[in-house]
Amino acid sequence: MATDEEEKAFRERCRLLEQGFSPASCAVWHQGRRGPACRVTLKWEGGKPYRLIKTAHLSRPEHYFSIYQSGCNWSCKKCHSWEFTQHATGAWMSPQDIAGLAREYAHQVTYKEPKERATAFHALDLCRSCGVCVELAYLPLVEAGQVRGKPYLVPTGRRSNLCPKRLQPEQMLLSPQGLGPARNIIAFTGGDLACQPEFYALCAEKIKGLDLGLWVLLETNGYGLTPQNLDLLQSAGIDAFWLDIKAYDREVHHRLTGASNEWVLRLPEEMLKRGFILEILSLYIPGWVERDQIERIAVLLAQVDKNIPFTILAFFPQHEMRHVPPPELEEMVSAYEAARAAGLRQVRLGNLGVFARTEQDYKRLAALAPGGW
Predict the structure, then answer these.
(1) What local confidence, expressed as pLDDT, does residue 146 receive?
(2) Is the pLDDT of residue 370 over 80?
(3) Distance between CA atoms of residues 120 and 185, nearest Å
(4) 190-216 b/e (C-beta count within 10 Å ≥ 16 → b)
(5) For a FRET experiment, which of 10, 119, 140, 344 has its CA 20 to 30 Å from that of 38?
């Protein structure tokens, strides 16, 4: 644990405190001790910031290039990435290193989105990653005297009933998380240190400097996105935010994350006011965040803009909430109907496999949203 002197030094230099905001629950494990994420997983050398990055690859079902960061300014009980967000691990990378990854990825892009679709929400109306249109084959390859199989994709001439039919098989790529297209989006995910915005700002500037038509998206809990930090990210070229609103109820939110949601609930308006592309995600957690809170979040969003894309994800047991069961089909359907009734025009349910277990369940969902999920 941090000593009293270390805690005092941290609070004296905390960027949130400097701007009149309270620090969050941002302790990260490192070498058997816990320290502030902004010290343990972020550093400055030679005038450049370096961030601890766990991995980076083409992710599914988002169909964009995701940079998975270690260290976070929250300590969520239900975090599904806790192994690296709450434990310092990975390789140090500078904005120049990130731009190098973006340059390599740009040459793999198979579908270019307009800026207004630079979201995870719009990935699913492009491709469902079912893999029906292609099959995996292997080309014999001799390396160091050993015969290995080099994978490649072969069109099958088939499509599933759920296929949006917007892509050709040649636009499919195999990634560590499955099949799908590669969209022109670079996303920062995993741990969140938006309270230290310079790293993201410099990354965005260098990615935009490549002039390769890439959009930059930040998946965030929103806690570090003060007005000053939002302005910096706007000027640097950040295009979009995936804002995860964990709960509407203040006490529930604090129990889940160790932080207040007062500013987070004001962020949708602040983000749209600055011209950012925005999508919202909330997790349905039985006994914690249910229909009533989903509805209140939806009402808040509809008051800002009825066209904000809103995804309601099904919780699955993880980290400190392994004892909490996932939601049932009717609970998710009820939350969806509440969000739609609140006036939101773009609502989706996510993690369908968690609560839809039978063919009848999927028929129920298909009847609810004929256009697909």
Answers:
(1) 75
(2) no
(3) 10
(4) bbbbbbbbbbbbbbbbbbbeeeeebbb
(5) 119
> What pTM does this model have?
0.92
Distance CA 318, CA 42 (A): 26
- Domain residue spans in the chain? 4-124+175-368
Q: Which residue bears the tokens 């990854």?
A: 101
Q: What is the helix (H) or strand (E) element at residue 175, kind and residue range?
A: strand 173-175
Which positions ≥6 away from 133 have C-beta within 8 Å? 155, 156, 158, 159, 163, 169, 172
Give the list of residues 6+ apart from residue 113 with CB closer than 8 angstroms, or none.
122, 183, 184, 185, 215
Query: 372: Cβ–Cβ under 8 A, 6 or more apart, which residues?
Result: 124, 125, 128, 162, 164, 366
4-124+175-368, CATH topology level: TIM Barrel (3.20.20)
Tokens of 242: 């995936």
Specify whether the CB–CB gap between 372 and 162 falls below 8 A. Answer: yes
Query: Which pLDDT band, with edges at 50, 70 and 90, does 229 fall under?
Result: very high
* DSSP-based three-state secondary structure for 289: strand
Return the DSSP state at 265. Answer: G
Percent of the chain with pLDDT over 70: 94
Rounded to an integer, what distance in angstroms lies between the CA atom of residue 186 and that of residue 104?
Answer: 11
Q: Are 137 and 152 in contact (CB under 8 A)?
A: yes
Instruction: Confirm if 42 and 202 have CB atoms less than 8 A apart.
Output: no
Reported in sequence order, the residue ranges of 15-145 that DSSP labels E, i.e. its strands, are 27-30, 33-36, 42-45, 48-59, 64-69, 91-93, 134-143
* Residues sharing a CB contact under 8 Å with residue 347, sequence separation 6 or more, in sequence order: 298, 310, 311, 312, 336, 339, 340
Map residue 48 onto helix, strand or coil: strand
pLDDT value for 11: 44
**pLDDT, tens digit (0-9, with 9 covering 90-100), for 192-205:** 999 999 999 999 99
